[in-house]
Amino acid sequence: MEFKLLDIEPYVVLSLSGEVDMQYSPDARKQILSVLERSKNLLVDLSKVTYIDSSGVASLVEGFQLSRKRNLKFGLVGVSQPVMQVLRLARLDTVFPIHESVNERIAAD
Amino acid sequence: MSQLAEMAASDPVLTAEILRIANSPFFGLVREVNSVQQAVVLLGQQTLRNLVLCIAVKDVLNNVYLPDLDVTSLWESTLRRATAAELLAVNLGLEIEKCFTAGLLQDLGLLVLLTQDEDCSRYWPELKNLPPTKRLVRERELFGTDHAAVAELLAQAWSLPSELTAALAHHHACDSMDCSTLCAVLHCADWIAAVFEVENEPGIIDDCHHCLTVHLSLDRENSEQILNALPARTESAARALGLRINPQADLQKVLENANLQLVEANLSYQQLTWELQQTLDERNQLAAELDRELQLAREIQQSLLPAPAGSDGPLFGINIAAHKLSGDFFDFFQLEDGRYYFNIADVSGKGINAALLMAKTSSLFRCLGKRIHHPGTLLKLINEELCETSVRGMFVTLVAGQFEPETGTVRIVNAGGPPGIFIDKDKRTTPFGASSVPLGVMPDTDFTVEEFSLGKGSLYFFTDGIIEAKTSRGKPLEIEGLLQILLKYTDQPPAERLHLITEHLCNTSETFRDDITLLILDANA
């Protein structure tokens, strides 16, 4: 798994790629938490994620929960098809704010 | 009269020095030497030339003012090589004077390198303590050249005999090229001297014996004789030349030191082995303890599952853990009014944290379920509790249901789990997909209840380990694959069916990365 951080006001965009599984979800979690702990709004770009397991989803859930506690904005953008399938199956697509792209999200805010 | 004698005669200081040395016990002359000419006659021209050379080298060194340079040990080292070469010559019947001279000059290049300036001179203690080959390599690192190359240039500038020049130039290359006997003598003299100079290299004595055998065909006895004779001979030569050197340790002492070092090295090796073994033992002990803990946890976890399939009721379930501890669970129990509560769930992640959350959820379900008979309300309450104590975003996908045997009514709440599959008596299938989000994700969530009649059909619940399991073709089984298997055994009695389906799944899938959990509701028995 690789990741990339980008500042697009008013968000920090964290792009994950590859497989977010048991092995790599701790890294994803660390990145997600570090952004939120700096009190920054976070968008997670999942367009390049090819696989996500429940531990990876838990990292997103934790980010979602922490952002609510801190009154920060959180969302997913460019969710790839394999990730969307997992989210839909668990109805988690109804929990996370999901947008096609960063721009679309900003326009919707 | 030789040119040498004439030259010496013109320098009264040199003459005095020659006479002093010639009369020293080193040469063991019976008659007193009174003139340079007499010295030439009695000692021979070669010896006299050596004397002059020694005096000249000594003067060079004494005139260098480098406070940090240990001139005494440098001299000692130079003289040790000259003496070693001399002893080799005696043993091999070679020209003694020629070998002594060559030995005296073999490290002259090093003198030049070290006495360039103060910076260079401080490397002497380090170089002194290195075996010959390593010393040469280090010189190249430090100075960009080595003493053999410098000695060659000096010898050429001074027009020294070509055999000597070649020996000085190549005495470190004996292993890689054919060289003269003189060259081999210098090479061996270096190793002999190193035995007395290099500390913390207990193997150097054997290296030295090996070198003498290979290059000069000297057996161990002969080479030991030379090593034994060297300290006293070096001291004697130093005295004769009026040089101050440190008292020479004899070979016995050197051997004792080397043996001591070997013992120490072995001891520390043994200690290291022992410590390593201890660490391994500790690790194994910890692993065994952890294993026992896991085994205990597994037993407790298994005890949370209902009695094995084959019980009297309408529910049949199985859980096969992919690892020691499972993140899946299923449960069912009968309420006082005859209704059955059941659930099947999967905790995000794996391992102990997943197992603990599983135990918590399962206990909440069982404990609260006995009082709260509406499945939607029950899940709402469990969800609040899990959200309140949420750790690391962990969540639980759970399908819960209630079955009323009297009416055949089934109520299902699917909180983020894979669809429950209903297969009616005509083998028509209806999926009951997730209608709500998993537990532990978001507080204040409502859980939708779906109600239908079981009739003569069966209801199947499973966790995602089954549909994600790779088939022998390398593709996930998916729901379609599972459906086919379920349909194949649908006519079997439920307990038997559960067994057959599990067996089929295990044969179909080469490896189960995840836990397998399956629950069947069938009231036809």
Describe this structure in words.
Chain A has 109 residues and is an alpha/beta fold. Chain A has a single domain (2-108), classed as STAS domain (Transcription Regulator spoIIAA), CATH 3.30.750.24. Chain A is built from four helices and five strands; from the N terminus they run ββαβαβαβα. A five-stranded mixed beta sheet of chain A has the order 1-2-3-4-5. In chain A, helix 1 links the parallel strand 2 and strand 3. In chain A, helix 1 (25-37) packs parallel to helix 2 (54-69). Chain A is globular, with a radius of gyration of 12 Å. The N and C termini of chain A lie far apart (30 Å). In chain A, 43% of the residues are buried. Chain B is α+β, with helices and mostly antiparallel strands and 525 residues long. Chain B has three domains: 68-246, Orthogonal Bundle (Hypothetical protein af1432); 250-304; 309-522, Phosphatase 2c, domain 1, CATH 3.60.40.10. Chain B is 56% helix and 12% strand. Chain B has helices spanning 3-9, 12-22, 36-43, 45-63, 71-92, 96-105, 108-114, 118-121, 124-128, 132-143, 147-157, 162-170, 181-197, 204-216, 220-240, 251-304, 351-369, 375-388, 464-468, 478-488, 494-508; strands at residues 315-320, 328-334, 340-347, 396-404, 409-415, 420-423, 429-432, 450-453, 458-462, 516-522. Chain B has a five-stranded antiparallel beta sheet with strand order 1-10-9-6-7. In chain B, a hairpin with a 5-residue loop joins strand 2 (328-334) and strand 3. The longest helix of chain B has 54 residues, at 251-304. In chain B, 40% of the residues are buried. The mean pLDDT of chain B is 84. Classes of the chains: A alpha/beta (109), B alpha+beta (525). At the A-B interface, helix 2 of A face loops of B.
